[in-house]
Amino acid sequence: MNTWIPWIVTAAVVLYLIYLYNGLVTLRNRVRNAWSQIDVQLKRRHDLIPNIVASVKGYMAHERGLFETITRAREKAVAAGSDVPARAAAEAVLDRSLHSLFALAESTPQLQASVNMLALQEELSSTENRIAFARQHYNDAVLAYNTALSTVPSVFIARAFAFQPDTLYEVSDMREREPVTVSF
């Protein structure tokens, strides 16, 4: 029976070392997965921003075109002066343009454009929140991993198998701490 005790102790130590090694591998993989999640959310944001910019530009171009038409029609009506047929024609164009403006104000396309823009803004805000959560999750995973690398007894396994600590996600450039601006 006494000959079994060293074998049992050796087996227990080996199993414990395997447990520690597997724990470090698991933590390292969680860090890698957390980084991948940040990457996924950044890709989502990069895909979303051009849609928002295009939507705003399209919406602004639509309104700008209508306002330019109204402005030109008004200028022609004023320029027609007292020439009744020319003035009547110019005023008719201005009248149609104003009706288009009123129709735009009450029509579904404007509401859809506005709703689409609000939806895109909500998507961007949601994506920014997901990025912040992914960054926090990454930092939590790195903290757990780095702590395991530097605490006894796993520090010995970490050194033996050359596990390297990971870096926390930090904002290094002060400009990154400022709010994002989109300009046209």
Short description:
The chain has helices spanning 4-80, 84-106, 108-150, 154-160. With 184 residues, the protein is mainly alpha-helical. The N and C termini lie far apart (83 Å).
Explain how this protein is built.
This protein is mainly α and 184 residues long. It has 4 helices and no strands. α1 (4-80) packs antiparallel against α2 and α1 packs antiparallel against α3 (108-150). The longest helix has 77 residues, at 4-80. The chain is rod-shaped. The mean pLDDT is 79.
Describe how the helices and strands are arranged.
Layout: H1 4-80, H2 84-106, H3 108-150, H4 154-160
Helix pairs in contact: 1-2, 1-3
Please give a handful of descriptors for the protein shown.
184 residues; mainly alpha
Morphology call: rod-shaped
Report the count of strand segments. Answer: 0
SS summary, helix count: 4
Q: State the share of residues found in helices, binned by percent.
A: over 70%
* Range of strand content: under 5%
- Report Rg: 33 Å
Based on helices, strands and strand pairing, what is the structural class? mainly alpha
N-to-C span: 83 Å
> Uncertain runs with pLDDT below 50, 5 residues or more?
none
